[in-house]
Write a structure and sequence with these properties.
By secondary structure, the protein is of the alpha/beta class. Helices cover 54% and strands 8% of the residues. It is built from 20 helices and 8 strands. An 8-stranded mixed β-sheet has the order 3-2-4-1-5-6-7-8, sandwiched between helices. Helix 3 packs antiparallel against helix 4 and helix 18 crosses helix 19. The radius of gyration is 25 Å and the shape is flat. The chain starts with a helix and ends in a 21-residue tail after the last helix. The relative contact order is 0.10.
Length: 469
């Protein structure tokens, strides 16, 4: 996850306050020093770190914790509120006709981001078009065209035209029926005069409603100069942070936001066109501190279930709660899970399962779980329709046949059948429940997951369920 090391370090610092009801000056000083170290190691600019830590220290010293609130939860709330204030509001992007210009250095992820943003707007009911003006980088046209095909959005580029300004002009005319125009520009390996001059010309022709700076999450301290140069040239109205699925520190994005006086618009979280999130400061910081992000989780669930349902019209997720739970139902659930993105990202959005819980897992835990799910998918592809509908009919001889057909061992086949049995039993507990029963169960689960801070607090406990180790 974005700034993962920062989140882990902050949570570790706050855990030192566990069990304390009040703070003394030494506690506050130690926590503030830990926060400073965490932010600096994440490549957040020094002046920002000092401002933030000063605000946290002042509030932690002067404000009294509300009655019944532990010292840890009191400081956690302060850190949460100050970090939300630091990252600022999300860039305003109205769902209406507009033109967006993308700027950034080569390798920052502009071309991929253009297609991702277009896909995002298309899912909001608008018709987007990407205009590729990069004539400098070999393969830029082909990459943009392929990405837009995957995103199923309109695309314009001209590999035979050497003037990027003319491509921009022709592109706007060719895609005039589009609601949203996203203009991708060329980058260089460094901030060069010809890059700045070129993008200034394109900006005059395109006359964008907003210009977004695309930054690789690994940019670090170099973000400050880059942001200033582009802001002086075309005026930056927002930042797109890319490649957050890797090990990048990500602090440079906060520096760029501060330097341009803008805000963050999107987060790129993976390689496919669907791996993009609209930046929401509350959810972003909640995940950072291990408190989940139910809004983003809900959006991913709705999208995944809709896409899974589109592929097979006779399958409805609601039917699971009415009749028997088959292996076909389980297969569809797993497909929906895959569409939600990497498992570690999904768990980060669930209060009580992200943050500290994830810190305690082995480094390869998520990879092992994903590999197991892929093994299950291969095994189910080797089963007959009757076996998928009636998994209890699969005896020892069929287990051997399925193992041979799938190339997996018999133990993994039996593990799949046991997994299905456990899920079936869980769903049967929910079937026939009234609203009152369901509310009591949800309240019980919430209490088990930890509380504090009236819904802001992260909890401990929990596990990966039947897929866990």
């Amino acid at each position: 996850m974005v700034l993962d090391n920062l989140g882990s370090s902050l949570r570790s610092s706050l855990d030192k306050l566990q069990g304390k009801s009040r703070l003394d000056e030494e506690d506050v000083e130690e926590i503030v020093k830990e926060i400073q170290r965490s932010l600096l190691s994440a490549d957040v600019e020094v002046s920002l770190v000092m401002d933030l830590s000063s605000s946290i220290e002042e509030r932690a010293t002067e404000e009294d914790p509300p009655a019944g609130t532990s010292a840890r939860d009191h400081v956690l709330r302060i850190v949460y509120e100050e970090l939300v204030d630091l990252v600022g509001e999300s860039t305003e992007l109205p769902l209406e006709s507009q033109t967006i210009l993308l700027a950034g250095l080569q390798g920052s992820g502009k071309t991929t981001s253009a297609a991702k943003m277009a896909w995002w707007f298309s899912k909001k009911g608008l018709r987007p078009a990407v205009i590729q003006t990069d004539t400098f980088r070999p393969g830029a046209y082909d990459q943009a065209e392929q990405m837009c095909e995957r995103a199923e959005v309109d695309f314009y580029g001209d590999p035979d035209e050497s003037d990027p300004v003319q491509i921009a002009r022709d592109g706007l005319e060719a895609t005039e029926d589009a609601d949203v125009h996203i203009v991708d520009t060329a980058g260089r390996h460094a901030l060069e005069d010809d890059l700045i001059a070129e993008i200034e010309e394109i900006e005059r022709v395109v006359d964008p409603d907003r210009s977004l700076l695309v930054l690789d999450a690994a940019i670090g301290q170099g973000a400050k100069e880059q942001a200033r140069e582009f802001d002086d040239a075309i005026g930056i109205g927002g930042v797109v942070v890319t490649k957050l699925d890797g090990t990048a520190k990500g602090g440079g994005a906060l520096t760029a936001v501060n330097e341009t006086g803008s805000s963050i618009a999107f987060l790129g979280t993976g390689e496919t066109v669907q791996d993009i999130e609209r930046f929401e400061p509350n959810g972003f910081i909640s995940r950072l501190l291990g408190m989940g992000d139910l809004k983003q989780l809900s959006e991913r669930v709705e999208r995944a279930m809709a896409e899974t349902g589109d592929e097979e019209d006779d399958w409805e997720p609601e039917d699971i709660m009415q009749g028997s739970f088959t292996l076909k139902d389980m297969q569809k659930q797993m497909e929906a899970m895959n569409k939600m993105g990497p498992l570690d990202q999904v768990l980060d959005m669930i209060p009580g399962l992200g943050g500290g819980f994830m810190d305690e897992l082995p480094d390869d835990a998520m990879d092992v779980t994903q590999d197991r799910m892929r093994d299950f998918e291969v095994i189910m592809d080797s089963m007959t329709d009757d076996e998928m509908e009636n998994p209890r009919s699969v005896g020892a001889s069929r287990v051997r046949r399925i193992a041979r057909g799938s190339g997996k061992d018999e133990e993994t086949v039996r593990e799949l059948l046991q997994q299905h049995k456990m899920m079936e039993q869980t769903i049967q507990q929910f079937q026939g429940m009234g609203d009152g029963d369901m509310q009591r169960m949800m309240k019980k689960l919430q209490n088990q997951g930890g509380g504090g801070m009236g819904g802001l607090g992260g909890g401990g406990g929990g596990g990966l369920g039947p897929f866990g180790d």
